[in-house]
Amino acid sequence: MTRLLRLGAAAVAGIVVGAGASLAVQSGADPEAGPVPGPATPATAAAPTTVTPDPDPGDGTRPSATRAPTVLAWTAGGLPADFAQAARALLETAATTVVAGDPVLVDAVHDAGGARHPSPPPGLVLGLDAIGIDPTTYGPFAARRDRGAVEGLAAGQALVGTTSAAVHGLAPGDRVQLRDGPVVEIVGVVDDRSVAAAELVLPAAGAGAAGVTTPRYLLARPAGAAAPLVTALRALAPEQPLRVRTEGETPYLRSSDAVLPQSRIAATFGSFAFTPTPGARELRPEPAWVDANIVAADVPVLGRVRCHRSLIPALRGALQELADRNLAGLVETYDGCYNPRLVAVGGSISRHAWGAAIDLNFGGNRTG
Q1: Do residues 266 and 129 make contact, with C-beta atoms less than 8 angstroms apart?
Q2: Residue 147 half-sphere exposure, CB side, CA atoms within 13 Å?
Q3: In which element (H, E) is residue 165 found?
Q4: Whole-model pTM?
Q5: Could you give the CA distance from residue 262 to residue 29 in angstroms, rounded to a whole number?
Q6: What's the first-to-final CA gap in the chain, in angstroms?
Q7: How is the chain split into domains, by residue range?
């Protein structure tokens, strides 16, 4: 809760309830709207110099003793042109892979026997966070137990992370009909850490047909320590607001790494199908989900809000603390919570569509 207080008059907060009903505040409610990558910090402060244990593969083989931590690089809107090629050529780099990412719409899911899943129902769609990978270069960055599934991924196939499988009821053998792409068959469920908690993972050979084409981020394995590679990557794009993170600094190595992945939002607040509005940002979630989850409530400082019911207790507590410290004046405007729409840049589902984000003082501080 104190993090909300520290945001002060510059607050544009996306507030979400995480595991254990804790309160998390993320600068920027939408993945592509924020957080805006900040200025570079010294590599010695940003990059751990120790090597990272290779996790137990869980397949009966022994994990390798240690390895250098993976380094992530991303910038809002996609990587700069030629960035990946330049990164591969660095002496500090042992291996790299580029991950594409874009939202996809799902018209229907059928199981291996041909029976249709209840979600999405006819006439509605599911919106999934999808990534496109090169199975060969991406494989070494996955957990050892998942590398076989990743490296064997072929056109017409897809993987899902464990959270996506649980939230959307997806399993190997299911066939997913993409609205603007082909039918893909799910051939495996892998650890969220292996796929940055993405909801649908496509091979490069099939990602383009599905519209997953934006190069969102690069993963790099250092040839030695991580710090020199961090410095070298930042030097490749000195004029870009490049975010460079090292394994262990963030839960998932992906673009917009400070924002909870969509799969985790759906796991916390529920998954819903919706009716899209062609050519517009508005969407209409299925009424049953709205009725069960979106409520109007009175909270300190803001008054009446309309948000997800799971958000209300934490929001009420945080704002009461603000009032108790005589800091309510820092909140100049309340600019909304539940607002079912797509993010302006990138077209992913806004956290406001779940009623899981609050905009405060938005007019003078749009990026947080």
Answers
A1: no
A2: 18
A3: helix 162-168
A4: 0.84
A5: 12
A6: 17
A7: 2-35+289-308+329-364, 43-257
